[in-house]
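Session log. Operator J.P. requested a structure for one protein chain; no other inputs attached. Running the standard single-chain path with token output.
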Amino acid sequence: MPSEPMDQDVDADRYRAPALDKGLDILELLSAQKSGLTRAEITKRLGRNASEMYRMLERLVARQYVVRSPEGDRYSLSLKLYALAHLHPPMNRLIAAALPAMQRFADAAEQSVHLVVYERGNLLVIAQVDGPGTWGISVRLGARVGLIDTGSGRVMLAFQTDEQREHMLAEHTKVKGEMTVDGTVLDADYRQIQEAGFSRKDSQQSFGVTDVTFPLLGPSGQAIAALTCPYMRRIDDYVAPSVEEVTALLMEASNSLSMTRD
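Structure written below.
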């Protein structure tokens, strides 16, 4: 009686789909690249014919699974596969994994915290935990948050490839009340956030709030989500954790949820 692995090999060979295999090979190759690849590099690494790689890349670009660099000479993955995954149980697994860490943070920091993911040009709040005190500020679960003028958005943008950032900004549409920000200011913010590994600055939506944001990084080092605490400082006699202590706690939470390779 044939073994199960042999049966699987026979079935895999019987139902081969060469064109599909080529497309999947390209997607899998690009998924491990931080800065994308040229068509020549893709062709060489996959050992394929240049003309068939050209046709396949053009179709993947047309279907928005792959994006070209502004110069048109490099290819990288778009967020389409990531967006499709939001419709699938992996999103539920991300929320299930994040909520315990978020609850531990909220209890220790005595502040609220929310988790956002990129969705069609802006951000979507997919999990939110209130602090344990009698007062605080929080962002509503399911709310759409601006990509440009929030700590969450800038952190999400900072930890992307240049090509992916261009794609996200091209998809962006303003949410209610969103401020216009100069491109040079954004570029400077991206560099500062990349160097620091997080963002901590006054909220551009509310007075008296300091937004502290860390990325949740995927295996390739790109942000798949962002964890934000809208920090509010106590001014009465109660001694609550400082913004520096809250930042350290949020870094611990985000590190526990990130998937970067050693």
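Operator note: The longest helix spans residues 89-109.
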